[in-house]
Specification:
- The chain is an alpha+beta fold and 230 residues long.
- It has three domains: 87 residues, no CATH class; 73 residues; 60 residues, no CATH class.
- The chain is 26% helix and 33% strand.
- It has a seven-stranded antiparallel β-sheet with strand order 6-2-1-9-10-11-12, with helices on one face. Strands 3-4-5 form a three-stranded antiparallel β-sheet. Strands 7-8 form a two-stranded antiparallel ribbon.
- β10 and β11 form a beta hairpin.
- The termini are far apart.
Length: 230
């Protein structure tokens, strides 16, 4: 079976997950058209297929690939989009199934992307600037090793190379921000694809790419503050 290639910079989008302390937390993602293009490119337009089915109220997508003798299938469940409803759920399940085939799996190795915003670029939680991936590089293990994010004017807003972050660092315990850490934890979990689809709740299993000691202190502090606030 052929190996699906790594994503190019122009195939990756960057969206704002949340805003706090004058900075935007960005997440990398791909849209469903990228999956279609890579499936066509890798296996041939006539050698793959997709189907959807509902199981206990959840929409699953199955992607089948013809290996020359039989169909090989992989599936995953989608999460309904708040803006597109069932259409968003179908697209999400397709992209997740594509990830099982290896499409865009490297995005889960992304560093934390924090971009300092200019005062005119945001108000409350709304951001009035777009961000784009202008450069990306990978290690031999297919993990992101280099990343450059620019805005619509071509200004470099974030750079990361060989694990050395050049952007903003997360808040320290000396300046603890509950909402900021909530966003951090949620972003980490989303990036690691550890959303519990049955309970629709976050889970704290794993996270090998992150500092466990810091995460443990974050979770403990959140629980402590929630308890004190009733």
């Amino acid at each position: 079976m052929k190996e699906i290639r790594l994503l190019k910079a122009e195939e990756i989008s960057a969206k704002v997950k949340t805003v706090y302390n004058g900075s935007a937390l960005l997440l990398l993602y791909k849209d469903a058209r990228v999956d279609m293009t890579l499936l066509d490119e890798t296996f041939g337009a006539m050698n793959w297929k997709r189907s959807h089915k509902e199981v206990k109220g959840n929409l699953f997508c199955t992607i089948g690939v013809w290996d020359g003798e039989k169909w090989v299938e992989k599936e995953d469940v989608g999460i309904e989009s708040m803006t597109e409803g069932e259409k968003g759920e179908a697209s999400d399940s397709f992209k997740r199934a594509g990830t099982n085939w290896g499409i865009g799996r490297e995005l889960y190795t992304s560093p934390k992307i924090m971009v300092k915003l200019d005062p005119a670029e945001y108000k409350d939680k709304k951001v009035f600037v777009s961000f784009y991936v202008s450069e990306i590089g990978y290690s031999e293990s297919r993990e992101i090793a280099k990343l450059t994010i620019i805005d619509g004017n071509g200004r470099v807003r974030f750079q990361w190379d060989s694990g050395q972050a050049k952007g903003n660092l997360p808040p320290t315990e000396d300046a603890f921000d509950l909402e900021a850490y909530r966003a951090d934890v949620e972003a980490m979990l989303n990036a690691c694809d550890l959303i519990d689809n049955d309970k629709k709740a976050l889970t704290l299993k794993g996270l090998p790419k992150y500092d466990k000691k810091l995460l443990d202190s974050v979770v403990a502090r959140i629980k402590e503050l929630e308890k004190s606030n009733g």
